[in-house]
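Appendix B, Record 12. Input sequence as logged:
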Amino acid sequence: MSFKPYLIKLLVDGIVAYGETAENLFNLVVLPAIFYVVLLEANNFNYRMMDFIKLRLIPNLERDISASMFDYLERHSYRYFQNQFAGNLSNKVMDMARGAGTIVERMETFFSHFTALIIASILLFFIHPFFALAFFLWAALFLSGTVFLSKRSHQYSTIASESRSIVMGKIVDSLTNVINIHLFARNKYEKEYLHGYLNDAMEKDRRLRWYLFKIKYLQGFSITLLVGGWLFCLIYYYSQGLITIGDFTFVLTLAMTIVWEVWRLADSLVGFSQELGICRQAIAIVTIPHEIVDAPRAKRLNISDGAIVFDQVSFHYVPGRDIFQNKTIEIQGGQRVGLVGSSGVGKTTFVNLILRFFNVQNGRILIDGQDISQVKRESLHEQIAMIPQDPGLFHRTLMENIRYGRLDATDEEVLAASQKGHCHEFIEQIEDGYQALVGERGIKLSGGQRQRIAISRAILKNAPILILDEATSALDSITEKYIQKSLEDLMRDRTTIAIAHRLSTLATMDRILVFKDGQIVEDGTHAKLLEQKSHYFHLWRMQVGGFLPRESNNGENSIV
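Logged structural output:
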């Protein structure tokens, strides 16, 4: 950019100095004219080369950053996701990818404009040292001031970006629960609820924009001072015969060109600072260390029998409020064990510790003698199939959701698992069958249908340890009867842990553990526990509609 005004200077000086013949004019201006045209094409070629490099670089960069952040993000602990909004996290992943791509573009712009400044200073020096010195000092002050002021915009950008991510999380949370919004007629409430966060994001964004507005006004004012000062100096130097008309044209043209180069350079610095602020709030995802990681020399879990041992295990979510304290329990390989007790007494925690969703504070959990904290978590989860109470399905086809249990399964194997899980009947009646999309979290399916998909998925996985968390709670009685047979086949020769509030589903278990306040207060078969007439007996009588005896005031039994 800086060479163009200089070539124009040479053309003007040549035109002014030519003699009477056109031949003299041609000889004087032909080379500058050729160089000017060549420079235009070189400039065009340079920009297109930079576009080509960015075309090859930036999409790959954004893809790799998104993939890396997602990989790091998904390895966070279960506790981490309990405290985060999915929409917030996904927005930060995309912010980081877009921000990194924009930073690369800003850097390219910065270096091209910076190079133009250096060339401009050198060319001005040949015209008159005063102009070179004045321009150099002005540019140094201009850019230094911009860098200094940009530090505050970096902070404002971080705050505004975090606020936008929070808004995204709130929007996704509301959309995920849209059925509740309709059921409770809370459209107006949700609008007002979201409006508060939108206002907060707007105010923080406005504060950033207002600050940038003030920076740009100061930049524009300093450019006006430079151009005005140069114009008066040019008139003075020309009147004194110190510069030619070509010099006058060159400096004035360069002034009008290069100040905008400096402006764009400063704008790149401000933009660079903004993008850093956006990336700063997004990069928190990968700066938070993983709570649960594999041990340095972790090996793969190898299961032969599937025996599970809690060895003096202590665990709490909140310090000082133990869920388990020095718990020791052994489950033999192939044994079918039921977990019963009121909500919040530790049944789900018991299962989550086996899955190593949380680390224990003291003690060990062993599977076939292998400490699960010393094996690879991925291999642990490969050996356990779980059917949760609220199955999570992907917005993918029914075939993909069932095959998720074993990705290398053939279509025939998926169909066989579907038939055993009693999915095949309703899938055949759905338009597009196994290729039908189930909606976000499986919203297109009923609760019972989702649960049957989860059962089929577990059947296909065929893992040596099976965990059932209210696996039939969403099923009707007729379907449950059919499913129960499939589950009995699935539990055969597998270590099975089943959580159930409906105690009748556990009557055939080899063993039942009764939880109360984090303690296992009873341990035995269904028949044995009924004979003891203790806590399990009372739970059973309440569920089957029996009456509990109570001492009357005169000492005789009364019925309540």
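Residues 298-383+493-560 form a domain with the Rossmann fold fold (CATH 3.40.50.300).
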